[in-house]
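Course assignment 3, question 2. Fill in each field.
Student: A.L.
Task: Predict the tertiary structure for the chain below.
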Amino acid sequence: MSLSRRDFARLLGLGALGAAVAPSIRPAGAQPPMGPMRFLAIRTPHGVDRDWWIPRESDGSDPRGTDVPLSDLSFDYDMAILRPLMDWRHKITVLDGLDTQCVKVGTRSGLYTNHGHNEQGTMLTGAQAPSNREGNFDGHPSLDFVLHARLGAPALLTACVEPTGTWKCMSYDDAGRFRTPQADPRALFRTAFPEGFVPPDPMEPAVDYSSGERRIFGYDQRALEALQGRLGEVEADKLQRHLAAMGALTPAAGSGTGGGFVGACETSGTDVPEVSQNVGDHTGVGRVTRAQAEVIARAFACGRARCATLQILNDYPNYYTDIPEVRSSGAPELFGAAYRFHEDLVHSYWGASGPELDTIRRGYLAGLRWATGNFALVLEVLDSIVDPLDPNGGTVLDNTIVFWHNEFGHDGHDNQHTRHPAILAGGGGRTLKLGRYLRLRDIAGTERVPHNKLLVSIAHAMGQTDIDFFGDRDLRDRPEFRGPLEPLMV
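Answer field:
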């Protein structure tokens, strides 16, 4: 019996949290991944201290440039939040200085103009947040919802680890209403795979459509080039970028890439996960996270989904409190045996000083580092499955844009709209820079870089280059919110 890479990794016990995970590294000269692009957004709670989140130079200082290869930097310093990502540096990009500036504008009544717990939906909608935390985002859908509607896969997957409150959701429909995530991997699986689903026969000969695709592309290209000559400079430039992106996605003559499957969908409707939503304690978070990630990865590999969201806890479950490294930080002695990670360490962090801050920092950063380990676990799962739709042998991770963010950014409670932690991982290398540290602005300055531009960049990387703005309708005509995030684009 042959084993898939996923099954082989499981037999070896790879990827235990707290241990280094080994991402695949493509051999020199290998063809770049060319499967259909997918999108996965991941969220973890409790904010971040930017100064302990970024990579550093060998002498411990901030990166000396604004665009630096992560291979030249390190997460391996004392109390570094992103240390579990050391082996993934070639497949991630760190965005330093991104801001959820849209929440501060306040163009209409009924809005909340700080960024705290109420604004979690802002991250994927790009919209101003309602003052009523149980309210909706007023006709503003999230990016996963919009991309799903355009790409047309059977299922839009919305998952979480532990059930979550309505105002802590990630995904929003076209009316701006929250979409309740599935906490049970078995229920998430059934969303993607009906009971009677049978994977295609991998021995059935594939059809090579590349010749016809090239003819269609050539006809369209000639028509668009003729149109380009009649456009003004700005519109002509947009069209040129669209042509370039389409050209990168079109097989070259004689490439043999059309229909050249290197793997197969291995999932049927009977392969329901055994893991339930019962986390139990902090040791079960990784188990449920892995199960949810496997369902998403298998759905991506089988073409059952192209977009998904995964919320790995929020601030309510108290699992962070029981992490051994958090308990050994001195937090129980400082706050008492009944302390809670969020209400005590997180809320107290920005106002503390001296020895008290040292104790809180050790515990707070240990909790965030544990969250990084859970994110790395998702990358490992995606990277363990060969993409059946990639003729060049890439993994599902190679063909997935993973956007990891926190519920809020750097600073005290309800003032967390600046320096929002954001990491892109996996695919997107055809249009997005990977393996980089990108400082987007003067971190100590007053300039702001709206995260709406990142949402546009992701849309472009997914092939939706006609999207030049994503977010609140009242901000559409403001140039600072429009267009892609240029330092990120290839």
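Instructor remarks: The CA atoms of residues 46 and 315 lie 6 Å apart. Residues 209-252 form one domain.
Grade: pending
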